[in-house]
Amino acid sequence: MVDKTEMMQTAMQIILHAGNGRTEIKRALVCLEEFDFAAAEQALSEAQEQIRQAHRAQTELIQSESRGEEAEFSILFVHAQDTLMTIKSEWNIAERLVGLTRSLDRRLSKLEQNRG
């Protein structure tokens, strides 16, 4: 059985790594505002690794339960899963914003060259 302490520790690991991912996503968006695409992509890469670690912790607990190990219900674990899902969505949007902004930057550069 997965005891309450283990459940809480896993939930906190998920929240910690997901929160670190959110910090990197915010950094990526600041870099994007400055059209620093390399730094934005680096920050998104670091965010993705943090999200991966959070997901790994979640998956281990879910797999334990699927093997028949009982787990106590934990509102903290539900919150951790919600946090992870939200931050993964933020990552997806930020990644698309980098692509979109890069595309617009290229188009603007092309227009500027044609005017010159």
Automatic annotation (TrEMBL):
Gene3D superfamilies, sorted: Phosphotransferase system, lactose/cellobiose-type IIA subunit
Keywords for the protein's UniProt record, in alphabetical order: Magnesium, Metal-binding, Phosphotransferase system, Sugar transport, Transferase, Transport
One Pfam family from the record: PTS_IIA
Biological processes, Gene Ontology terms: phosphoenolpyruvate-dependent sugar phosphotransferase system
Cofactor(s) in the UniProt record: Mg(2+)
Top-level taxon of origin: Bacteria
Chain residues that bind Mg(2+): 82
Residue numbers annotated as active site: 79 (tele-phosphohistidine intermediate)
Modified residues (Phosphohistidine): 79
Cofactor note: Binds 1 Mg(2+) ion per trimer.
One function term, GO molecular function aspect: transferase activity
PANTHER family found in the cross-reference section: PTS SYSTEM N,N'-DIACETYLCHITOBIOSE-SPECIFIC EIIA COMPONENT (PTHR34382)
Name assigned to this protein: PTS lactose/cellobiose transporter subunit IIA
Organism: Scrofimicrobium appendicitidis
